[in-house]
Amino acid sequence: MTPLVVGQLLSPEYSLGLVALSFLISFAGSLVALICAGRMVGADGKPNLAVVACAAVALGGIGIWSMHFIGMLAYRLPVGISYNVPLTVVSLVAAILISGIALYMAGGRRKFSRAGWLAGSLLAGLGVCVMHYMGMFAMNMRASMDFDPTMVALSVAIAITAAGAALWLAFNLRRLSHQTAAAAVMGVAVCTMHYVGMSAASMICIAAAPTDALAIGGSYMGLSVFGTAGAVLIFIYWVITGTSLDAPAASRRARTS
Predict the structure, then answer these.
(1) pTM for the whole thing?
(2) Do the bridges between strand 81-84 and strand 201-205 make them parallel or antiparallel, or are there none, so unpaired?
(3) How far lies 53's CA from each of 33, 61, 78, 253, in Å?
(4) How confident is the model at residue 34 (pLDDT cuts 50, 70, 90)?
(5) Separation in Å, CA 231 to CA 33, 143, 240
(6) Alpha-carbon gap, residue 234 to 101, rounded angstroms
(7) Residues 6+ apart with CB under 8 A from 84
(8) Do residues 222 and 230 touch, judged by C-beta distance below 8 A?
(9) pLDDT tens digit string along 59-88?
């Protein structure tokens, strides 16, 4: 291996397997979020906050954050990379909260709202960008980052557009075949924003990186995140579909009592 020189521009490579996993988890998270969105408002017109929370975790925590983190792990440099735990956790919580608020603004108040959709799209898009770049700054490595403002602006535009499409699709599609196609489109959009955002950064070799006791890393972390996210999605789907299946029986019991 050629020794690195301080000030050298580092050339990144990607693990294609993890790139594929990042799209797959984004697609799965988006699909479950779309299914949840159709059940957010009950027959009485009131939002079911538990379902809103499930949708937020599926979209923000799995479809967006897990995709981004696996995409970060797919990013390989000729220097070691670990991730600051507090910043990583904050980015996860932020993604879930922002997604939940955006979903509620768009369709959690009795019906789909155009004004709420526009506001939620802007909030969610900017929130995704904050989460993404917070995740990049959580990287602990022997390199500094230099950003291209044009590419950063492009990633912001893609994030807002993708968020708008995701929220519109969530409340305007009901057939599973349409939701599946929409989830694939959303997965592509989220991945595009992420990898455009990554391309905005140039990595410059430095002499040393500060020691970070609260850092995590490892070659199997991508698979661990994918497995954990997949298990959470299966649980959310089971809870949501179980609730919807129990609802008719509950309504029948209420009518007969």
Answers:
(1) 0.83
(2) unpaired
(3) 10, 11, 40, 27
(4) confident
(5) 15, 34, 14
(6) 23
(7) 138, 139, 140, 212, 214, 215
(8) no
(9) 999 999 999 999 999 998 888 888 888 888
Q: Which tokens go with 157?
A: 């535009």
Q: Which residue is associated with the tokens 């995409």?
A: 71
Give the helix ranges, DSSP H, for 113-220. 114-137, 149-172, 176-199
Rounded Cα distance, 204 and 19, in Å: 23
pLDDT above 60: residue 138: yes
Q: What is the percent of the chain where pLDDT is above 90?
A: 26
N-to-C CA span, the chain: 77
Query: Whose structure tokens read 């590419």?
Result: 151
Position 223, amino acid: L
pLDDT at 197 over 60: yes
- Kindly state the helix (H) or strand (E) to which residue 146 belongs, with its residue range: strand 143-147
Judging by DSSP bridges, how do beta strands 81-84 and 9-10 pair with one another?
unpaired
Half-sphere exposure of residue 168, counting CA atoms within 13 Å on the CB side?
13
Q: Residues 6 or more apart from 123 whose CB is under 8 A from it?
A: 98, 101, 102, 105
